[in-house]
Amino acid sequence: MPFNSIGYQTAGFGNYDDNGNAVAIQDDSKIVVAGETSTGTDFDIAVMRFNADGSVDETFANNGRATVNLGHLYDTGKSVAIQDDGKIVVAGSFLSVGYGFKMCAVRFNSDGTLDNTFASNGVDSIVAGSGSCQANAVALQDDGKIVLAGSSTDGYNLDFTIVRLNADGSLDNNFGTGGIEIFSIANADDYANGVAIQNDGKIVATGKSGNNPDVAVIRLNEDGTPDNSFSSDGKLTTNVNGNDNSFAVTIQSDDKIVVCGEAYDGVTYDISVLRYTSSGGLDISFSGDGKATFAIGSTYEGGYDVEIQQDGKILVCGKTATTSAADTVALIRLKAYGTLDAGFGSNGKVSTDIAGYGDASFGMALQDDGNIVLAGFSNNGVNNDFLVLRYVAGLGVGITQPDIENVSLRLYPNPVTDQ
To answer: Can you tell me the distance from the alpha carbon of 129 to that of 248, in angstroms, rounded to the nearest whole number?
Structure first.
């Protein structure tokens, strides 16, 4: 089924900036994007649902759009996950004057209304640490429990913070201390940006650590204690180029851990990808030393989400600028051993410019048929709108009007947006 006839869709909530930060795909192939929308005076949590053909699903909430105003200056949804029962969980934060950020989790029914059986009328606000705290990622356990990852302050520095909620939104007292585990890595700020759950129930989180930051990864046992079988103490840091960050993590079928982010060498930021063994060491079968960086064409580019295809190839999405112009959506594919897949896009790289004023992708999900769905924002010259793109890995670059029913086109191994 062609996706909005041109391979992408942009849609807004009003007359101000709307940013998509994460994407998930329902069992019925509908696409859920979470982020934030500006009212002109503040930002609210925003969720939009799209049909499989790329059109906005007007059966969801208010003409396809749901917003949550927590009564603060800045409410944002950073991550989204779909429960087995179709309910939608969004993790994020809110900022209030004089109190800093607080974590929040919001759950929607499948029709886009708030789920009143979850926490307080569908909204759970969480205080961790001694001050400001934020949730940047969410993952769902098989038993229905909800894991949030982010950061909280001890009054001096920020630390990795993992929170586990019961299915009803209450803190899980069987995890950490009262449902919260705070994890200091360096005597400096530590941020968790991504989280994943292994098949054995252990929790892996990634982000950055230190004043001159390195990529950081931690692994916790199911009860929230550090997993000492992982890098001897449950935590590790990796220097890539001197100023590094990771934004997302996924677990391969062989239990190896893949993270993506950005690496700064003092001149440019590049997309970075690292792979670790299940015991916490860099996987030297990946790019020779377990870490790789990639440039598409700009002085600032980063990888914000990572997925593993069924054939073991690695996809990373983000942003780049191929010239001095505004950012564009970036997508790369790596072979399982860490080199760019020359049969994908232009030598493993794809850059998609939507309107010429600035685009980026922050979330990615794979459909059952292998199609690649990205979400982010696109600037139309006035403000940002939600952006959803779909790529078909079998079509060739340069085909402006591909007939996706024509089998001969699928002989081309390169992707274009699904038109």
So the answer is: 23
Report the alpha-carbon distance of residue 194 to residue 261 in Å, rounded: 10
| Distance between CA atoms of residues 226 and 61, nearest Å | 40
Within 8 A by CB and 6+ apart from 379, the residues are 326, 355, 357, 358, 359, 385
- Distance (Å, rounded) from C-alpha 368 to C-alpha 96? 41
Sign for the CA dihedral angle at 77, 202, 83, 308 comes to positive
Over residues 281-300, the mean pLDDT reads 93
CA–CA distance from 73 to each of 76, 88, 97, 99, 347 (Å)? 10, 24, 8, 11, 44
Q: What is the pTM of this model?
A: 0.93
Render pLDDT for 88-107 as a digit per residue (tens, 0 to 9). Answer: 999 999 987 777 899 999 99
Q: What is the pLDDT of residue 9?
A: 97
DSSP state at residue 396: P
CA atoms of 58 and 56, how far apart (whole Å):
6
Residue 268, both tokens = 């440019």
In the block, residue with structure tokens 């934004």: 247
Bridge-partner residues for 317, per DSSP?
Answer: 305, 331
| Pairing between β-strand 372-379 and β-strand 384-392 as defined by DSSP bridges | antiparallel
Which band of pLDDT confidence, cut at 50, 70 and 90, is reported for residue 71?
A: confident
CB atoms within 10 A of CB 101: 22
Contacts of residue 400, defined as CB under 8 A and 6 or more positions apart, other chains included, come to: none
CA distances from 19 to 88, 180, 348 (A): 18, 29, 27
- The number of beta carbons lying within 10 Å of the beta carbon of residue 211 is 10
> CA nearest 315: which of 391, 244, 263?
391
Residue 389 pLDDT > 50: yes
Nearest to 298 by CA among 267, 321, 266, 326: 321
Question: Above pLDDT 70, what percent of the chain?
Answer: 92
Q: Which residue has the higher pLDDT, 192 or 398?
A: 192
- 217 close to 203: Cβ distance less than 8 angstroms: no
Instruction: Say if residues 379 and 357 touch (Cβ distance below 8 Å).
Output: yes
Q: Does residue 395 register a pLDDT over 50?
A: no
